[in-house]
Design goal:
CATH architecture: Sandwich
CATH topology: Jelly Rolls
Number of domains: 1
Low-confidence stretches: none
């Protein structure tokens, strides 16, 4: 698992994050007292192959809180969601094939 720390106040603006299969990536606020900037547009792009790749996006509202699946659940095609409230971190998990997550604000 890798952890990427958002550098406030300008994060994420626009970011493209590579997600290796079976190696979750966490994109977290710079400190436990902060949240990621929002609203934030999240696009999960699962890798393609046979079988089709999938990707799960989850969020955490507090640094020690539970991980909650985003509304789309695990996706097998490019999927976009607008996160309209504060969260501490995002976690991206690709299964089978490498994928990409795009963040825009």
């Amino acid at each position: 698992m890798s952890v990427i720390t958002a550098n406030r106040p300008n994060a994420p603006n626009n970011a493209q994050i590579a997600v290796a299969a079976a190696m979750p990536v966490i994109y977290a606020a710079a400190s436990i007292d902060e949240t990621l900037p929002w609203p934030i547009n999240i696009t999960a792009v699962p890798g393609s192959g046979t079988p089709a790749g999938t990707m799960l996006v989850e969020y955490q509202t507090a640094s020690s809180g539970e991980w909650i699946e985003w509304p789309a659940g695990t996706v097998s095609v490019a999927t976009t969601y607008l996160l309209t409230g504060p969260v501490y971190a995002l976690r991206f998990t690709a299964d089978t094939w490498n994928g990409v997550v795009e963040l825009a604000q």
